[in-house]
């Protein structure tokens, strides 16, 4: 997808998600020299396309600016899923390819972990698109899914992969 894209900014939009009509305009307006990534909230929608919530929840404030100190201190910063991020092509040129053996699923974990080493992160607090919630989501779902042992093991393994990528990029 990246090889086929021609623009200066790239969004990896999951097949079951969508952006609102003015999303690209709002993202591009916030991109400037030194910006690695623009993140924005998404509406959570059910299988009928009805809004059921916001991701991340409104009470969770995005981290923005130079988030590297936060990354180094906590191993993560407040961000969102794949479809809620736009990256400068120059950033992707620095961090791609995604290590497929570790991030074949949830490659956004790698991207949002290492992109801040290439520049600042801009946050847009309002939803610019929709994230579909259904039974096949890796990280979201119905009540009780967070307690599923397999899901918890996958989340922990994913975090360890992110921390390794963080260590590698911090060392560079």
Q: Please, could you describe this protein's structure?
A:
The chain is an alpha+beta fold and 172 residues long. It contains 6 helices and 6 strands, in the order E-E-H-E-E-H-E-H-H-H-E-H. It has helices at residues 23-30, 68-74, 89-95, 100-103, 107-114, 149-171; strands at residues 9-10, 18-19, 35-45, 51-55, 85-88, 120-132. Strands 1, 2, 3, 4, 5 and 6 form a 6-stranded mixed β-sheet that branches. The longest helix is centred in the last third of the chain and has 23 residues, at 149-171. The protein starts with 8 loop residues before the first strand and ends with a helix.
Brief summary of the model shown:
With 172 residues, the chain is of the alpha+beta class. The chain contains six helices and six strands.
């Amino acid at each position: 997808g990246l090889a086929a894209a021609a623009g200066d900014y790239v969004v990896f939009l999951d097949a079951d998600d969508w952006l609102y009509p003015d999303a690209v305009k709002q993202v591009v307006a916030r991109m400037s020299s030194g910006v690695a990534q623009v993140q924005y909230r998404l509406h959570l929608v059910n299988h009928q396309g009805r809004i059921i919530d916001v991701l991340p929840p409104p009470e969770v404030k995005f981290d923005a600016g130079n988030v590297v100190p936060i990354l180094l201190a906590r191993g993560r910063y407040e961000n969102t899923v794949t479809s809620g991020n736009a990256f400068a092509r120059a950033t992707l040129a620095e961090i791609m390819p995604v290590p497929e053996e570790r991030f074949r699923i949830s490659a956004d974990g790698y991207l949002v972990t290492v992109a801040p080493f290439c520049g600042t992160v801009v946050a847009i607090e309002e939803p610019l698109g929709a994230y579909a919630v259904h039974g096949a989501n890796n990280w979201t779902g119905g009540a009780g899914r967070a307690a599923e042992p397999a899901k918890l093991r996958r989340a922990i393994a994913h975090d360890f992969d992110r921390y390794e990528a963080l260590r590698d990029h911090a060392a560079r």
